[in-house]
Amino acid sequence: MKQMEPINWLFMLISLPLILLLTLPLVKMTFDPSLGMMKETLMDPDVVNAIARSVGLSLFAGFLAFVMGTPLAYLLARKRLPGKKLVEGIIDLPIMIPHPVIGIAILGLAGRNHPIGRFLADVGIEIMGTQTGLVSVLLFVGLPFYVNTVKAGFESIPIRLENASRTLGAGAMSTFFRVTFPLTWRHMILGVIMCTARAISEFGAVVIVAYHPMTAPVIIYERFTAYGLKYSQPIAVWLILISFLLFVTLRMLSRSADQQG
Predict the structure, then answer these.
(1) Which terminal residue of the chain, N or C, has fewer Cβ atoms less than 10 Å from its own Cβ?
(2) What are 218-259's pLDDT values in tens digits?
(3) How many helices (H) and strands (E) does the chain have?
(4) Tens of pLDDT along 154-176?
(5) Distance separating alpha carbons of residues 149 and 115, to the nearest angstrom
(6) Domains of the chain, with CATH numbers?
């Protein structure tokens, strides 16, 4: 067995406090609530609905990112577009700006004082306090993670494979779906996971756009401010467990698709 070099031991020692910082709070919180408290929390319909809403709408936002973000990621990876760097910077903006600002910006655009807001109202689409508003926010904050992940996937595929397909007579659309898409499938699953994970955790923009209907982070915050840690921790633990199972399932699907490919 090869002995580890001193520098590796040094790096492990330096990294240990970071690992403990990430794991200890979550481990403590997970084991703090009693089984009775966990069961009682799961019997609360408001909690169940909030968690289901968070997971369901976040998955839907991930699906929308897949549908609309995949063409964008392909263009950014393969084409020399005018203003490409500007577009890439715009995509990364939700990562950098405070998320309450995102909520305020969306409401400003969707309000009746703005032409887009008036158009949405005329066709019966409401943003403030609706699931439509929630999906808009969740897609906004999660899209950068999907696009950047899938863009890296497209860039990892040698362009000569696409050129060979075109040389053999396949069209651009056929080449994309027969060559490029299958080779990037795992990155797309990973992108959906990243987008969904980011969406589930969103709080700052959500409370601005749609405090009600409540998502899991919002009800955790409400229970904490009203009753303290005792009544907010069990909800957080259930959200962590459900999210963990969801992401493990998606990872398994990704690995299965990769093996079949």
Answers:
(1) N
(2) 999 999 999 988 889 999 999 888 888 887 877 776 666 556
(3) 13, 0
(4) 999 999 999 898 888 888 899 99
(5) 34
(6) 35-260 (1.10.3720.10)
